Amino acid sequence: MESTAPPPDAAGPPPGATRSTVTLHVNGVPHRLTLDHRTTALDALRNHLGLTGTKKGCDHGQCGACTVLVDGRRANSCLLLAVTLDGSALTTVEGLADAEGLHPLQTAFVERDAFQCGYCTPGQLCSAAGVLQEAADGHPCHVTPDTAQPGAPVELTAEEIRERMSGNLCRCGAYPRIVEAIGDATAHPAAPPVPHAVHGLGAVSVHERREAAS
Amino acid sequence: MSHDPQPVPPKAPGHPLGAASARREGRAKVTGAARYAAEHAPPHRVHAWPVPATVARGRITAVDTADALALPGVHAVLTHENAPRLEQAEDPAVAVLQGPAVPHRGWYVALAVADSLETARAAAEAVRVTYDAEEYDVTLTADHPDRYLPKEVNGGHPGTRERGDFDAAYAGALVTVDATYTLTALHNHPMEPHASTAWWDGGHLTVHDSSQGSTKARDDLAALFGRDRRDVTVVAEHIGGGFGSKGTLRPQAVLAAMAAQVTGRPVTLALPRREMPAVVGHRAPTLQRVRLGAGADGVLTALAHEVVTHTSTVKEFVEQAAVPARVMYTSPHSRTVHRVVALDVPSPSWMRAPGEAPGMYALESAMDELAVLLDLDPVELRLRNEPATEPDSGRPFSSRGLARALREGADRFGWRPRDPRPGVRREGDLLLGTGVAAATYPVLIFPSSAEAFAAPDGGFRIRINATDLGTGARTVLGQIAAEVLGAPEERVRVEIGRSDLPDAFLAGGSSGTGSWGWAVHKACSALKAELSRRQEPLPQEGVTVSADTREEIAAGTPYARHAFGAHFAEVQVDTVTGEIRVRRMLGMFAAGRILNPRTARSQFIGGMTMGIGMALTEHSTMDPVVGGFAERDLASYHLPVCADVHTIEAHWLDEDDPHLNPMGSKGIGEIGIVGAAAAVGNAVHHALGVRLRTLPLTPDAVLPHLP
């Protein structure tokens, strides 16, 4: 029967004008990879690390199927060149669940039937995890009332969820169930923040990185 | 929003059929463990990238692959000069790299194969193709000189049907509607681009393909490569949507198999999103003239539905948009006609509810126009035109739930009281309106075979080459088996999605559950009988029973069998920006017995959502200057997004129809889109007071008509 090949990144020419060696911390595990400069984070995950949970829908940042968390923030991994992410922490759908079981978002997606074909689902889940954090951090969106206290946690109403999730296309039309599922996870008392600790380097939070950059 | 009080409705113990069972592959899909066609990486796999034609029509005069082949890591560049020769293709659209002719822009002319995806793409870009460009015509017009009357249209329906004397009846009608509706081409755009991973092992070809039916894909690949079907295996375990565009073989499977043959390596080819509109099929544009004649009571005396559409020069595919007019309403005098023009355009194909989706947009919009003329409630108008038998065939309906769906849907939606006056409901800058439209979709059932196995430990296994492209096929087949066997669902394993399983029809025409379910039902019934006959314990190897439904389906039916439904929509039109938004939408369906309310609801709502896209955002045009579709990506072809789908509900009637299959089910995958766009368009007329007959209703189309 078919077996899945080991990561092929050892093959090919050494680092130089067309390839560089970087360390990506994916779901808490450091991976040292020598990658073609043209390789996107999405293709690095799928073709070099065998993490095919992250999907390629358009490769142009138009559909959101490739959404992952980069240092805790949502990003279209098809628009990021992997060699620019040296030292970054990536969370993919494979990293949402902990050893105990499913992330509350994953449980809610199953219970609400918030998908059909499942191809956009990993991106929806990572995007939703990002939304939970953004709302907790007080990031407003287009539909957040002007009267909202700056920086205060935003309540994720159905309208807030619909707006914040509109970068993730679902051709099966599971949107109403996706909104319900994210609502369920919001209400879940044990909804854990998505881990973005970098193993071996200590915890890196979004805020610390922002300060370090300024 | 239809917030269910509880996310998991309670299951009736002991009755798996009708239970809201969760998807069997749910956990695999939410954890990323489910692998789709491009995600199988056998050792030494390489990647392919296609080269599309850049002329609208012509012949390749030269292909220079030297620069591409010089790139480190490139294994091969396939062109029409060196690609393996294929046997005659049943579908000429998959006969790729077989000659120099370019029938349309985007037709594949070469394929680069390399160690990495990046190198394959660079190699594809380095291929230099020289063409002898020819005159071309990509523009569909209602009076195109090359239009002709096709004998048959998609689905095997006759192209033209005449009943009574339409012209005389229409001329004598008290009230008439004569309106032409225009729909642009539409694209399926499943979230998973069409992909294949193929390899040859000795003389055996294995392909992981994003296919809606791997039995048919296997047979077609075997025929193309001149092999026995036993020498080909096609696997389609998880498919990221298809909506018809993965119905039969598509070029990616043929190209990947060719490249694997040439390189001796496993090859993955995932089509670039921007190239899909040219090579995977599309819903052809339609220009639809509908003429209705009625008396003062609204009862139709004359009905004509005339459709002009395009096909490609590669093959004839005629969108059967006038066919639903043969089913829907009583009318003693009727004409339904298709005319088609073969243009230098990509080949059209199936897209969710081919025929019904565009046809019912036109017919149901025209019915609304008639209701407005007569000052009659549009629900009432439809009730007055309920036929006693199927109008075109005269056959009795096995069941026809349209009237009940209209009445009960209207009640649930809060249709009444309704002020029929258009353009009078204001809320600040917004104009509000409501609309209704009917839906119909035929009950299609095709022969399939299945195997049921009982293990000595009390477990069961069902094997059938069904396909689950997001519909929940695995889950519902397990429910059917469990129901027949009297076993808990978790004791029934379901194996689907491989061509070495018992042959089954593809996932299309909303036929899956009826066709596969019948075979599973039959196999399980036989297994149950076999088990009850046995006195002694089961042997070590268990007991296996096979069944197929060829005889049952060949026996046919004297009935006209269709699902029906009614859509209700409330819209707002922004009088400053012209933006239309659907505030709420409700679908009420009569589709036989619903076997799994959880997955069924998702299918209905998914179809309705695609209908919102058809009404408001999805738009594709042939570029008249260079050929090919202008809107090729998801930034220019707008699928509905989460914020576009506000409150949307699907409900259904309990329908007990004994003339379908042992489960009593009708198909539900497509009816959700049928009529949905008309309901939205009719609501827009009610809000705005202006009838817009060209979809989609984007702000630029609305702006000139604002008060």
UniProtKB/TrEMBL annotation, chain A:
<keyword id="KW-0408">Iron</keyword>
<feature type="domain" description="2Fe-2S ferredoxin-type">
    <location>
        <begin position="20"/>
        <end position="96"/>
    </location>
</feature>
<dbReference type="InterPro" id="IPR036010">
    <property type="entry name" value="2Fe-2S_ferredoxin-like_sf"/>
</dbReference>
<dbReference type="InterPro" id="IPR002888">
    <property type="entry name" value="2Fe-2S-bd"/>
</dbReference>
<dbReference type="Pfam" id="PF00111">
    <property type="entry name" value="Fer2"/>
</dbReference>
<dbReference type="InterPro" id="IPR036884">
    <property type="entry name" value="2Fe-2S-bd_dom_sf"/>
</dbReference>
<dbReference type="InterPro" id="IPR001041">
    <property type="entry name" value="2Fe-2S_ferredoxin-type"/>
</dbReference>
<keyword id="KW-0479">Metal-binding</keyword>
<dbReference type="InterPro" id="IPR052914">
    <property type="entry name" value="Aldehyde_Oxdr_Iron-Sulfur"/>
</dbReference>
<keyword id="KW-0560">Oxidoreductase</keyword>
<dbReference type="InterPro" id="IPR012675">
    <property type="entry name" value="Beta-grasp_dom_sf"/>
</dbReference>
<dbReference type="InterPro" id="IPR006058">
    <property type="entry name" value="2Fe2S_fd_BS"/>
</dbReference>
<protein>
    <submittedName>
        <fullName>2Fe-2S iron-sulfur cluster-binding protein</fullName>
    </submittedName>
</protein>
<dbReference type="Pfam" id="PF01799">
    <property type="entry name" value="Fer2_2"/>
</dbReference>
TrEMBL record, chain B:
<dbReference type="InterPro" id="IPR000674">
    <property type="entry name" value="Ald_Oxase/Xan_DH_a/b"/>
</dbReference>
<dbReference type="InterPro" id="IPR016208">
    <property type="entry name" value="Ald_Oxase/xanthine_DH-like"/>
</dbReference>
<dbReference type="Pfam" id="PF02738">
    <property type="entry name" value="MoCoBD_1"/>
</dbReference>
<keyword id="KW-0560">Oxidoreductase</keyword>
<feature type="domain" description="Aldehyde oxidase/xanthine dehydrogenase a/b hammerhead">
    <location>
        <begin position="31"/>
        <end position="135"/>
    </location>
</feature>
<keyword id="KW-0500">Molybdenum</keyword>
<dbReference type="InterPro" id="IPR036856">
    <property type="entry name" value="Ald_Oxase/Xan_DH_a/b_sf"/>
</dbReference>
<protein>
    <submittedName>
        <fullName>Xanthine dehydrogenase family protein molybdopterin-binding subunit</fullName>
    </submittedName>
</protein>
<dbReference type="InterPro" id="IPR037165">
    <property type="entry name" value="AldOxase/xan_DH_Mopterin-bd_sf"/>
</dbReference>
<dbReference type="InterPro" id="IPR008274">
    <property type="entry name" value="AldOxase/xan_DH_MoCoBD1"/>
</dbReference>
<feature type="region of interest" description="Disordered">
    <location>
        <begin position="1"/>
        <end position="41"/>
    </location>
</feature>
<dbReference type="Pfam" id="PF20256">
    <property type="entry name" value="MoCoBD_2"/>
</dbReference>
<dbReference type="Pfam" id="PF01315">
    <property type="entry name" value="Ald_Xan_dh_C"/>
</dbReference>
<feature type="compositionally biased region" description="Pro residues">
    <location>
        <begin position="1"/>
        <end position="13"/>
    </location>
</feature>
<dbReference type="InterPro" id="IPR046867">
    <property type="entry name" value="AldOxase/xan_DH_MoCoBD2"/>
</dbReference>
